[in-house]
Design goal:
The chain is of the alpha+beta class and 464 residues long. The protein has 15 helices and 19 strands.
């Protein structure tokens, strides 16, 4: 029997002949660097890594891979929690060389290729005093982030990233290039706004831009007591929609920006971002400063792109377990569970991240896009970072028990925060009729499930 690795390798001469972009094989000096992803535990060896230079080359790759019957993965920034962007023996389509960006300041729109990172796009748009809301880490690729929904610093003011997606260019499994928007192939446009990479390779996005020249934002560090945790989230929920808050609760490691006397203590590291006037922003953040004596306070006026630079880029993670859930309430009982479970962790770093949602995100009808969690009020994400893989079962048990202690309301998960948790959790990302509609669209555009290395939605006619 031919191995998947050798089957994909037979394509290499054809791909070298057809592509202008690099074709990287295991024999090449840059192979190990090219196959690396953010989560180091995914130490996988694709048969070949391709870096196309334009959409036409992407289409040729998709057609060749489909005809050869080999596995295909797609990588934008390489931050997939489940490691979907790199698979042993597969063809890895790496978008890294497609970083074109065309900004129209007058129309307040931008066409962006999907090899760009959120930080690169935000810096370029910021030169015009404009922004599109992405996530909270600058090195994340805009491709996967957008296809999953996009939850970040401007969520309450301007909604999800997909709420500012006006059009897209996508290569489907038949190798055809589609330009989709609300009028042209609206079902496919609906599906890629939250449905992940199930429907093709997105090569370019057209985004709406907003006037976000400066913000009032920064990091406010407070003691990590249950009262402070509950109060931070209550204030975030009641705040003006211009203010989005991401509260990271953790036992403080010896970070340079944390005073030494607080190392080892439970802290709330709250990232605040007010997208509005400086005067109104200062009023909006003041209640947070009054919750407790701040340990550190960098909140103030700044250019919006600077928000990505405050904590720097996170170090590359080797071993990590995660869980994420939507909840309908964050009260004292939830806050106490956060404190007790974080203190019980034996990982070198454990964190609970709490976000108040709502605002512009919630005003979009739930069936308007494939992101079907518009009415959820809060999201909590949990993580433990450690060094040795043999510790994984203990940390997995901790994360599962922790999530169970916090859960209230219906099951649900933001697909971009989903790891390898099984088919049921993928279904939880697309509840009810959303799943059925996505499966029908999948059957129309990818009936053989070529795009399956993702949180997969099989075609409607395929057996489960």
């Amino acid at each position: 029997m031919t191995s998947p690795f050798s089957a994909a390798s037979t394509l290499i001469p054809q791909l070298r002949a057809e592509l202008d972009g690099p074709v990287i094989t295991p024999d090449d000096a840059g192979y190990d660097a090219a196959r690396a992803v953010f989560y180091g535990k995914f130490d996988r060896r694709p048969a070949v890594i391709l870096r196309p230079s334009d959409t036409a080359e992407v289409a040729r790759v998709v057609s060749a891979v489909r005809d050869a019957g080999v596995a295909l993965t797609v990588r934008s920034g390489g931050h997939s929690l489940a490691g979907h962007s790199v698979v042993d023996g597969a063809v890895l389509l790496d978008m890294a060389n497609m970083r074109g960006l065309e900004i129209d300041p007058e129309a307040k729109t931008a066409w962006a290729e999907t090899g760009l990172t959120a930080g690169e796009y935000t810096k370029a748009a910021g030169e015009h005093g404009l922004a599109t809301g992405f996530g909270d880490t600058g090195s994340v690729g805009i491709g996967g982030l957008t296809l999953g929904g996009g939850v970040g610093f401007l969520l309450r003011k301007y909604g999800l990233t997909i709420d500012d997606l006006l059009a897209a260019e996508i290569v489907t499994a038949d190798g055809q290039i589609h330009r989709v928007d609300a009028q042209s192939e609206p079902d496919l446009f609906w599906a890629i706004r939250g449905g992940g990479g199930n429907f093709g390779v997105a090569t370019r996005f057209k985004y709406r831009l907003h006037e976000v020249d400066s913000i009032v934002g920064g990091l406010l560090t407070l003691p990590g007591t249950s009262d402070v945790i509950a109060s931070v989230i209550a204030e975030a929920d009641a705040a003006p929609e211009e203010l989005s808050v991401i509260a990271n609760v953790m036992v403080a490691p010896p970070m340079p920006f944390v005073p030494p006397e607080h190392h080892g203590r439970l802290l709330v590291l709250a990232m605040l971002c007010y997208a509005g006037s400086v005067e109104a922003g200062e009023r909006a953040v003041e209640p947070f400063r009054k919750l407790a004596t701040p340990i550190m306070d960098t909140v103030g006026p700044m250019p919006y792109p600077q928000i990505y630079q405050l904590l720097g880029e996170p170090p590359r993670v080797v071993e990590e377990v995660t869980r994420s859930i939507f909840v309908d309430a964050v009260d004292g009982q939830i806050a106490e569970a956060v404190v007790s479970n974080l203190q019980a962790s034996v990982a070198p770093m454990a964190v609970a991240q709490l976000r108040a949602l709502g605002g512009a995100m919630a005003r979009v009808p739930e069936d308007a896009t494939a992101f079907a969690h518009r009415g959820r009020r809060f999201m909590i994400s949990l993580g433990a970072v450690y060094e040795h893989s043999d510790e994984t079962p203990a940390h997995e048990a901790w994360a599962s028990d922790f999530a169970g202690a916090l859960r209230n309301g219906d099951a649900g998960i933001y697909v971009n925060f989903l790891g390898n948790e099984g088919d049921k959790r993928v279904r939880d990302a697309y509840p009810g009729r959303t799943w059925d509609r996505l499966a029908a669209i999948k059957n129309r555009y990818d009936p053989t499930n070529l795009f399956r290395h993702n949180h997969n939605i099989p075609p409607a006619t395929s057996p489960r």
